[in-house]
Amino acid sequence: MKLLDLHIDGFGKFHNRDVSFSDGLNIIYGKNEAGKSTIHSFVRCMLFGLERGRGRASKNDTYSHYEPWDNKAVYGGRMRVEQEGFVYRIERNFQKNSKSLAIINETLGKQVEPSKAFLDQLLCGLSETTYANTISIGQLKSVTDSGMVSELRNFIANMNTTGNMSLNVTRATSHLRNRRKDFDRLLNPDAAKNYTALLGEIRSLEQDIAAPEYENLLLPYQNKRAEAQNQIAQKQEERGRLLQKIAAGRQALDAAQFTDEDSVAKYRDDTKNTYDFYQAAKSACQKKSRPVLAAMSLAWSLLLGAVAIAMAVQQYRHASAMARFLPSPQSGPGVAAALSQADYTLPLVILCGILSLLFAAVGALLIFAGKRGRKDLAYTGKLLQEVFSRHLGDGAITDNALEAFLGRMEEYIRLSQVMARSHASLDKQAKEIDALKEQVAAHDEAISRQQKSQWELEKKLDRLAQYKDQVEALKQVLEENDRIREEIAAIDLALDTMTELSSSIRGSFGLYLNKTASDMIGEITGGVYDSLSVDENLNLFMNTRTKLVPVGQISSGAMDQVYLALRLAAAKLVQSGHDQMPLIFDDSFVQYDDDRLRATLKWLSQSYSDQIILFTCHQREAQMMTANQIPYHMITI
């Protein structure tokens, strides 16, 4: 497989960045902090994906380290590779919430299902661990990681089909047993019990939360309170307008010197009676018969008085004369007749006297009544003039004026009635406002209760959320326990398998890896060492003609070359049967002197015909390539 090009949508410091590669040797030059390691990591993540760590480890993991600087919403890109004559486009989105992988076969124009079998073929049989420990070589990272031991062991064990190879698994078995102990320590035995207890707490809290007392009625009560307050404001506004109306009506009544409807009615009736009395007095004063009757009454009184006096005088004279001539009571019938006549004359005198007095009284009354009538007419006229002038603006005393006055009084009566109704409305509104205020107070109390219950509900919800978070964490612990138990089971199976295979694969590690690495070591070290020995734990020994030298005793530059040869030998072994992946060097030759670097570059160009990508912060690699006429493709970032 070879890399054709890549496009970074967002990864670390890069945004919308394109890089193209060529066949053979590619030198990517950039100063320190230019982003070479970022591109190197991007290639690895595009091939094998990028997972975010959990818990505290996520703060410093690869995912967090390479999150885009400018726009964290765009995290990913695409890369084009060629494998066995087909061009594939790998598209990845690393965002944790929208992670995706798509592979398009551009040669056939269709999307490919990224199954494990297809990815194994596309990645030339390399796992991420194998990739990191063989063909991907970082700065000062020629030494392989411990994970490479199990990778190579598995590989060589899988190759063993003839039964004539063996592998010393003593250390490997010890390592697996130690790993099993490590996994035993990682198990959390209380997780299941805590998980069950938390589920019980959650069910209890959920039942509490579902109780009617925690039903959220805060908004309805607030709406009811607001509605009652609005009604109070409206009624108070109406009350204000009504008070203004009453004040205006009261001012009008006060100006007319009225207090209520009864005072208006009494004033109206009194005025009407005065008008009637005025009209009667006026009619009486206008009649001419009253003075005549008074004169006639007085004349009759005088006449009857004179008659009475005359009759009395005559009777007195007759009585005196008769008395002189009366001898005694026994004087005979003549005397009796005279006495009888005297008895009849006296009542007539009295009657005439009385009639005279009556006629005199009638005449006097008529005279007095005339004078009184003229006085009353003048007084009532003055009153009516004042009344009509004040209410009508005109003091004329007429029937029309009276009608106008009565109409005006009806207006005051209606005004008094309106004011009475307005006062009743005021009282009603006051009671309604008091009732609404009581409703507001009740709503305030209900809102206070609701706020308290909602506060308690929020506390329960917070506690529920905490419990659920703990449950989720325990789920992960339980899943981790399951995974650990699977790992333990796998280790047990591996131990059993290794015990069964130990007799047939013992020694095979050295046979394969030693031979391949030894073929390279002579050329890469310029003949200083001709071979090496590698045990199952990748412990190295250099072979000279006189002795076996542990690799720790050779120079650091030579050691780096030896480990490079070991990595390339391991890469060749694990990729057998597949196309070769590109070799990727990320400032891997910083500690090489010029001679070692020149020899290494020359050996690489001659021994590795597939694609090589070399990241460097120096220009001496390109200069050496040019000096030795080794073709290369230069990329500057």
Protein described:
The longest helix is centred in the last third of the chain and has 107 residues, at 399-505. Helix 6 packs antiparallel against helix 12, helix 8 packs antiparallel against helix 12 and helix 9 runs antiparallel to helix 12. The chain is an alpha/beta fold and 637 residues long. 64% of the residues lie in helices and 11% in strands. The chain has 16 helices and 14 strands. A hairpin with a 5-residue loop joins strand 9 (531-534) and strand 10 (540-543).
- Please count the beta strands (DSSP E, at least 2 residues each): 14
Low-confidence stretches: 158-168
Helix content: 55-70%
Q: Measured on Cα atoms, how large is the radius of gyration? A: 68 Å
H-E order: EEEHHEEEEHHEHHHHHHHHHEEEHEHEHE
The rounded distance between the terminal residues' Cα atoms is: 24 Å
Output the structural class: alpha/beta
Proportion of beta-strand residues: 5-15%
